[in-house]
Amino acid sequence: MKRRTFVYSALVVGAGLGVTGIYFRNNETRWKSQPLGYPYILSGICDDETLRKIGTAYRKLVPEENSKEKLLNELNAGLTTRQLNSDRASLVNELELKVESDFKDHKLVTIAGWVLSKTEARQCALLSLS
């Protein structure tokens, strides 16, 4: 391999890794700043626009949960960690356990072809309101 080819290849790979790092850092910042309103697991599969569409569809499907206060109350129900008095990482872990529990207890909702837990759907709805 020629030195020039190696240098160009290294630059391309380095730039690709840098862009990837920036993307993941920005994505992490979103869920860390608003863990209740940003579905961590689902955000790895869907982009923000899709998450907001799912949230809007959920709010139309369940009109009694069409307010920020009601969604926050539902998401906080059963959590031991509260958003205001603890670190965000433990809240995210607790929300992940709640999502897993929803699947085990068959607390599911189907929206736009996605089978989601109620907790994930509520997080999407809260995101769509922001």
Can you put this structure into words, describing what you see?
With 130 residues, the protein is mostly helical. It has one domain (34-129). The chain has helices at residues 3-33, 40-43, 48-61, 68-76, 88-104, 118-129; strands at residues 108-111, 114-117. A two-stranded antiparallel ribbon has the order 1-2. A hairpin with a 2-residue loop joins strand 1 (108-111) and strand 2. Helix 3 (48-61) packs across helix 6 (118-129). The relative contact order is 0.17.
How many domains make up the coordinates? 1
Shape: elongated
Figure out the total of helices.
6
Q: What's the N-to-C terminus distance? A: 52 Å
Largest sheet: 2 strands, antiparallel
Amount of beta strand? 5-15%
Helix content: 55-70%
Biggest sheet strand line-up: 1-2
